[in-house]
């Protein structure tokens, strides 16, 4: 007689447990989330591996041929006979290659700016919600004052000040970092307000009282006990903020106060293409704009799905 026991059953791996979670189940049931993730990951991977995918290095002067300028998509050039999948711009640069390299700048600025805003906002929210009093008043009134101005204007102001104090010979080299600083400092408020509200709820719960009774300090309680319990809304805001940061970078670059011409982002490419839209070279603007739209829309839809999936009231 054979006895079957569950003691010999192998425990599920971490990957298997994640696949069986409620979040993964909700993801598999949402075609919009799956398509958005596929589009976003395709664009991110294309940007990461741009040097391997791009047929040309569009920013290497040795590879440029001005005779290839204004070549329409997938048509041979009248002088050189070369064909480019998405056409070329006024300098003969392959538009497909410029989009891949521009994606790298836009995504890098977006991710870095969100991480900066998230870090500042989470720290400010934890401190404000945990200590309260004049600390809470000072931080929240600063946030309220910043909210009275459009974030793009705040970013332009910070960008102008930071660029003004940067030595002239380093401005082009530091332009990307100044852009990250400007967008990040204009984006911390929403993280701080959400984390503050969640911290004010969590600090009165039993596990925080128990941590105080055993002699834990304020900083360990905030970062080791309260922080893990307030990260769910932060993750949702970070996903949505990534799309907004990418759009903010494109807006600043389109206005000429963002990425330099030597390191063009999607916004810079759109600004360049806009000057040739009414002369018939539509592809110089159209393809970078479609790429920016696909990237921002997919990340935004993914953030909207994540917000609904993590909301316990909708389960």
Features:
Stage 0 sporulation protein KC, MetI-like fold, mainly alpha, transport, BP-dependent_transpt_permease, 315 residues, OppC_N, 14 helices, MetI-like
Q: How many individual helices? A: 14
Terminal CA distance = 46 Å
Q: What is the beta-strand fraction?
A: under 5%
**Rg, nearest Å:** 24 Å
What is the general shape?
A: globular
CATH fold field value of the domain at 97-314? MetI-like fold
The ordered H/E elements are HHHHHHHHHHHHHH
What is the CATH top level name of the domain at 97-314? Mainly Alpha
Largest sheet: none
Mean pLDDT: 87
Broad structural category: mainly alpha
Percent range of helical residues: 55-70%
How many strand segments? Answer: 0
CATH architecture annotation of the domain at 97-314: Orthogonal Bundle
Q: What is the H level of CATH, i.e. the homologous superfamily of the domain at 97-314?
A: MetI-like
Low-confidence stretches: 1-7
How are the SSEs ordered, and which strands pair?
Layout: H1 14-19, H2 22-28, H3 31-48, H4 50-53, H5 95-131, H6 133-147, H7 151-165, H8 171-185, H9 188-202, H10 206-213, H11 218-226, H12 231-254, H13 266-274, H14 283-309
Folded structure, characterized:
The protein has 14 helices and no strands. It is mostly helical. The protein has a domain at 97-314: MetI-like fold (Orthogonal Bundle). Helix 7 (151-165) runs antiparallel to helix 8 (171-185) and helix 9 (188-202) runs antiparallel to helix 12 (231-254). The longest helix is centred in the middle third of the chain and has 37 residues, at 95-131. The relative contact order is 0.13.
């Amino acid at each position: 007689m054979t006895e079957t026991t569950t003691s010999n059953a192998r425990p599920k791996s971490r990957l298997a447990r994640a696949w069986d979670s409620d979040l993964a189940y909700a993801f598999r049931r949402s075609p919009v989330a799956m398509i958005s993730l596929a589009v976003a990951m395709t664009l991110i991977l294309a940007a990461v591996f741009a040097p391997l995918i791009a047929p040309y290095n569009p920013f290497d002067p040795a590879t440029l041929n001005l005779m290839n300028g204004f070549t329409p998509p997938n048509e041979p050039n009248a002088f050189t006979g070369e064909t480019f999948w998405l056409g070329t711009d006024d300098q003969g640069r392959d538009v497909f290659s410029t989009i891949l390299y521009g994606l790298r700048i836009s995504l890098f600025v977006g991710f870095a700016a969100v991480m900066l805003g998230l870090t500042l906002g989470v720290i400010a929210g934890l401190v404000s919600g945990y200590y309260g009093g004049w600390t809470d008043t000072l931080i929240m009134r600063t946030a309220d004052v910043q909210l009275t101005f459009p974030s793009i204007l705040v970013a332009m102001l910070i960008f102008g000040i930071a660029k003004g104090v940067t030595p002239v010979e380093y401005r082009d080299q530091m332009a990307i970092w100044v852009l990250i600083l400007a967008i990040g400092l204009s984006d911390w408020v929403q993280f701080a307000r959400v984390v503050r509200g969640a911290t004010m709820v969590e600090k009165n719960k039993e596990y925080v009282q128990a941590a105080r009774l055993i002699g834990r300090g304020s900083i360990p309680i905030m970062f080791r006990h309260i922080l893990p319990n307030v990260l769910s809304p932060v993750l949702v805001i970070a996903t949505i903020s990534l799309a907004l940061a990418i759009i903010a970078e494109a807006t600043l670059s389109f206005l000429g106060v963002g990425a330099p011409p030597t390191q063009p982002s999607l916004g810079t490419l759109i600004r360049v293409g806009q000057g040739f839209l009414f002369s018939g070279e539509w592809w110089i603007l159209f393809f970078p704009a479609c790429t920016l739209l696909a990237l921002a829309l997919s990340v935004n839809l993914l953030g909207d799905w994540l917000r609904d999936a993590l909301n316990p009231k909708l389960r």
